[in-house]
Structure prediction request, 487 residues.
Amino acid sequence: MFNKRQSIYRSSSRRSSSGLSVIAMLFILALAGAGAYFLMRDLSGPSVSLSPETSGRIGLAQPLELDMSDKSGVQSVTVTVKRGEKSMTVLQQTFPTLETRQKVSFNLKETKLPEGAFELEIRAVDGSYAGFGRGNATTLNLPMVLDSQPPRIAVKTGPPAMYRGGSGLIVYTVSEDVEKTGVRVGDLFFPGYRQDNGSYVCLFPFPISMRTGDYLPDIMARDLAGNETSSRLLVRALNRNYRADTLNIPESFLNFKAGELAQLCPEEATPLAQYLCSNNKVRISNDATLIKVAADPANNSGKFLWSGRFQRLPRSAVKANFGDFRTYVDGNRQKIDEQTHMGLDLASVAHAEVPAAQAGRVIWVDYLGIHGNMILIEHGLGLMTQYSHLSEYGVQVGEMVKAGQIIGRTGTSGLAGGDHLHFGVLVGGVPVQPLEWLDATWVKKRAGGRRARPAAGMAGRHVGEEQHHLAHEHFLLGLPGHAVAGK
Ligand SMILES: [Zn+2]
Prediction:
């Protein structure tokens, strides 16, 4: 009996203990689940960002993009425009699948909003079970200003005329803050730089490769709301005849340069083929590099680093001019190539000290194809000077140099037969006539830098009259057929 009871007791005790452990385990599981839920549950709505960042100014047709993300997935988004009592939904979208990131584009064209202030409400909902399955919502109420007016540009000073191969500098004002402004020349763009007094300065070239009839520079400005204005700059395009020159490429030259030519064009078999490849393929690639270097904002001070004229290699003879149209002939006087020379070749004694033509910042100290060992100095506003075929460097990238400071020594590196300096002046990476920049009168009148004076015929105007000029209709651009700029 006793034994049996004991056994009964034991067995019941066993049953009871296993029942307890199940409950305990369920309890622990429930706690863990709740803990996990509390730890992992989604308490906030999607993060929402609107681009582009326009400082609250929006144009009607401006494309806008919403970038939303949420760990539970983005369920829906609604965009409403509110103005006074009125409101209008411009976007309402529920996404078919829950993705952690969604991007949608919209614009305000349909709203036909008038100019002025309004509110943009953006409401995005996530796919969590919060709020009994309604999800978490993020609501942004953004104060905005509708701006459909393009900026107005007033040119204060500019060149009345430019020579083919030359440079032009304009000073102008824009009626509002801009996202982009500058001068377009064909496919090329030359940015304008805002100065401390609020005006913009833009330096641009008349590329020697363009014909006078094709030279139609446009000035443009685009405001933060995406409204753009552009107009023809009325600058008389003057032709300048450049010299024709014949360059001998004898066997002796090819032998002298054999090692370097083989490095420039290893894929070609003969020194002549390597030379022709260097003078064409490598030249084109080098030109593209110069444009790229100039376009890098890191290589561009937005202000005048120069003051007054530029100086050339002292005690040197001019061996070739900018714009020389060169016909290359071989030892038998047979034409093998033709190219336009894009700088000033200056010869002094061998390994002559090379001074910086003007104050600036060194942005390139390296070998570049046909230029050999080359230094580039930027002088601000997209202006650079180039020193090619060097034998020695005396400066480093990033160094600020003074006008006349020795930066290296002349040599024969790259496509140079004899020791000389190839001196180039580049505007936005495009080679221009260096003689303008070496001419004190031209620089003072057209590109004076820190001591800049108004261009001829504009004398007597000063910064205080800026507002007055904004109202000067004949300087205002943007009217077809009325495009007038400068003089
Ligand atoms: Zn040269």
